Amino acid sequence: MRILSILLLLGLSPVALFAQDCDGADHTVLAGNLYFNPADLTITAGETVAWINEGGFHDVNGNVSVLTGESFGNPEVFSLPAVSGDAAGVCMGTHTFTVPGTYGYDCSIGNHASSGMVGTITVEAAATGCNDALACNFDENATSDADCQYEDGTFDLSGGFWLVPGAALDPAYGCDIQPGVGTVANVVSVQGEPVTVVVDSALEAYINGAATDGLISSLQAILLISALENATFSFCGNTMTGVAGLNTIVSEWNGQSWSLQDLGLNLAPVNAVPAGCGDPDALNYDPCTNPDETLCEYAALACDNPIACNYDSTTTGSTDCIYFDTELFTLDENDFIGLYDFLGCPDGYSGYDDFPVPLGQDSAGVPLTLTLFPEVEEIWNAFGFELAAQDVSTATIAICGNTMNYNSTIFGLQVSEWDGHGFENETFGSYLAPSSSYPDGCVDEEACNFDACAHPFMTETCEYVIATALETAEGDTGMVTIADTGTLTLIASPADGNTGEWFSACGDLAIDGNTAVLTASGAGDCEVCFTEANADGCEAEACIVITIIGGIGQQTGPTWQLMPNPAASELRVMWGGEAAVFEVFDLNGRRVHTATLQPGSQVLDVSTLQPGLYLAGPQGAAPHRLAIQR
């Protein structure tokens, strides 16, 4: 009591001083008003018991019996100090029993023991051995299956099993396992547990396919899938034993496989089958081995074409020639030719100015060729590249690793190396590059986010400043006529935050912000334009065509203008000539749209055009770039 009083004076309680963590114990004994519950407990050696006080002041005394005054004689001494409990339960402590035997204990506080507060712990030895008849180390005298082994290391099962229907085997090869007609089943092999087979959808499909092909019966397929799903196996020496319900399968290793005769199947560990060449076209084909292409040997190929990847000067014929052998790109993607423009694209190729020339192969075993579209050829010829057009349309090509062999009918064989983007052609100062070498971007020079290096003809991501059309103070747009000494008030309406700059080829402008007064001079057709720029410096221009009376005879041709640009589905065209045909061309030179154009201003429907960049204009007039954006 003196000790208890001192603890209380110090602000400490016996519970705080002696309580331990009871979490994680294997068993729990409750202590309370003159009881231990359970009073008698049986456990296994190595397990831990926790005592929790539900009320009163109690200890756990396993040393000297209060009732007899003699030692309990326990196999090992244990005790826990006195702790006050409450209804929530207070942990008195734990003890791990490692020595089998019977342990007695009581509560040594007051007359608690004589009032019945005594208990026993019976500690049984841990079960050992293996009493599973399937296991390799089966012992009929063992008390548990805790130490069972189901594979003894005779075979390495980690690679799974080859499953091969016996009916699929070619007897001429003299082997039970022919991987080319079998399938691999994965296995689960965990220490202390029977071996099982993983029956996944692929294995089921193979077994059902074997039944469809008549290699096993439909009944065998059903039984086989069911057996593999439910069976457990052991592999002891050369004996394989499987148990599925009441059915037992026992098979002896015959040097090549285990035979499941009732199910029409042979089975062998993948790692027990030697490696060899599994290619029937090879000289050393071995169907009885795990296929390994690196072990295959082949007859010398016949390829006497110097540009081929596998050219052999000692052979004749070209039946085995290979002309495309690279991981740089594929023949399925587009290819482009362009002239060097390092100012426009310092890192890569200037895709905005490239032409499509697909690289392809008419059939296996023939050289690659380039397709020169008539529209592209027409453009090249117009700019003096007739020789290049002839060369590209007749050249034969091989791509071998990082090397391009380009056999020109005009200049002979040219060899070039991959420069990270494509192959150079020094003769023409050009390059050939696959589609995958160009980044995504916008190749419209009129766009705010123009990227000279981007993929040719890609305009889906283009961004534009949409310039507001100019108009006169009277609201006229498009084409306006004034006297050669007259004046005209023009109004621009830039978007909020945008700035603008005026330009006149028609005379002097008196500028007042977004309004300008033109004093005409000269005669003929001319333009007044307003260039609008956003905060990023991207610009768009809107112009109005003005005919100054007195100089019509000096015109060199009819004037015309289109707006808006970019357009969505409608395009307004101002035309100063006679009725004409309005044409729209894509950047390959193909005419994709026509309309009849009348003098004056009219709206044309361009809703059928895909988003992108085009050239448009009346026949005989200089075309303008037209962007379609939605």
Mind explaining what this structure looks like?
By secondary structure, this protein is mostly beta strands. It is 9% helix and 36% strand. It folds into five domains: 2-124, Cupredoxins -  blue copper proteins (Immunoglobulin-like, Sandwich), CATH 2.60.40; 127-291, no CATH class; 324-437, no CATH class; 464-556, Immunoglobulins (Immunoglobulin-like), CATH 2.60.40; 559-630, Immunoglobulins (Immunoglobulin-like), CATH 2.60.40. The chain contains six helices and 45 strands. The strands form 14 sheets. It has a four-stranded mixed beta sheet with strand order 2-1-4-7, with no helix packed on it. It has a four-stranded antiparallel beta sheet with strand order 11-10-18-17, covered by helices on one side. A four-stranded mixed beta sheet has the order 21-26-27-28, with helices on one face.
Features:
Immunoglobulin-like; 9% helix; 4-stranded mixed sheet; mainly beta; single chain; 4-stranded antiparallel sheet; 630 residues; 5 domains
Write the layout of secondary structure elements.
Blueprint: H1 2-9, H2 14-18, E1 27-32, E2 35-37, E3 40-44, E4 48-53, E5 56-61, E6 79-85, E7 90-96, E8 101-106, E9 118-124, E10 161-165, E11 183-185, E12 187-188, E13 196-197, H3 201-212, H4 218-230, E14 232-236, E15 239-244, E16 247-252, E17 258-260, E18 265-269, E19 275-276, E20 290-291, E21 324-325, E22 335-339, E23 355-356, E24 359-360, E25 369-370, H5 374-382, H6 386-394, E26 396-400, E27 403-408, E28 412-417, E29 423-425, E30 430-434, E31 471-472, E32 479-483, E33 487-491, E34 499-504, E35 507-512, E36 515-520, E37 524-533, E38 539-549, E39 560-563, E40 570-575, E41 580-586, E42 591-597, E43 600-605, E44 612-618, E45 624-628
Parallel strand pairs: 1-4, 3-9, 19-20, 21-26, 32-38
Antiparallel strand pairs: 1-2, 4-7, 5-6, 8-9, 10-11, 10-18, 12-13, 14-15, 15-16, 17-18, 22-23, 22-30, 24-25, 26-27, 27-28, 29-30, 31-33, 33-36, 34-37, 35-36, 37-38, 39-40, 40-43, 41-42, 41-44, 44-45
Helix pairs in contact: 3-4, 5-6
